[in-house]
Amino acid sequence: MASKPFNFILFISLLSLVVGHGNVELEKYPLVVSTWPFIEAVRSAWRAVDGGSSAVDSVVEGCSTCEELMCDGTVGPGGSPDENGETTIDALVMDGVTMEVGAVAAMRYVKDGIKAARLVMQHSEHTLLVGEKASEFAISMGLPGPTNLSSSESIEKWTKWKQSSCQPNFRKNVFPANSCGPYHPINYLDLSDEACSITDQNQKPRLLHVGLHSHDTISMAVIDRMGHIAVGTSTNGATFKIPGRVGDGPIVGSSAYAVDEVGACCATGDGDIMMRFLPWERFPLGVNIHDPHAVSSNSGSSSGTMALQNFGFR
């Protein structure tokens, strides 16, 4: 397939899928689908939903398992340090029946991201809580904490990054371009040769292809025995992100969305790009997700999506 900027490509080989047994026409549910081959997370969600749990409880169970296993170092504690070496958690859960959403972002000191997101949905009128206040809420609702979310592996990764002049990073149009901060903005009105040289150094291409190491999210969709749909996401964000950065993981409609009457959509990849092009918006409009041109843009980045109609997997 020819390379196109930011094509949403359905990677069947990178999805984990479990469906019920029997006649598909008569026994369509339950069903669990997840981005990336996080098999144990899918099995955990499957055991829950096959045992009669709701779609919401099952998706929380699946994502929670991935957090506990620290899937690929990109979910749960112990991975993806930011510029300061700290690991934080983003998570979201959405109920396709009630359209309720709970999410946490840049949450510190609490490792149970998806459970914290469910607590936001169940015990507040809000959709999203962030930072230390999200942590305080989660702990007050009974989750364990505060706890250090870093690990020896994440600290070692961060130390090596610092020794490599903080390269690569997510800064742009700053000085210095090729070393650690403190950083200062480039004055675009300065047309000197030195300023132009600095600007050239700041032109960093984004990742162009989706792979096992260019993602940072588990996105999961579950249809329970009643045919109800829920989605969940969990991530510790982009490695070496600028402190305070929030990606698509806790943003409804960007990382995941669910509507009982329609279906669900989940995405993974470059979260800063996903938030600009809201994958969910495309699918109810009848866009053919197998068409690589259907949801392309000029972002210069690629990500993967999956979609569930209320009567099956696409």
TrEMBL record:
Pfam families: Asparaginase_2
Any one GO CC term of the record: cytoplasm
E.C. code: 3.4.19.5
Active site: 217 (nucleophile)
UniProt site (Cleavage): 216-217
Secretion signal, residue range per the UniProt entry: 1-20
Reactions catalysed according to its record: Cleavage of a beta-linked Asp residue from the N-terminus of a polypeptide
Coiled coil: none
Name recorded for this polypeptide: beta-aspartyl-peptidase
Organism: Cicer arietinum (Chickpea)
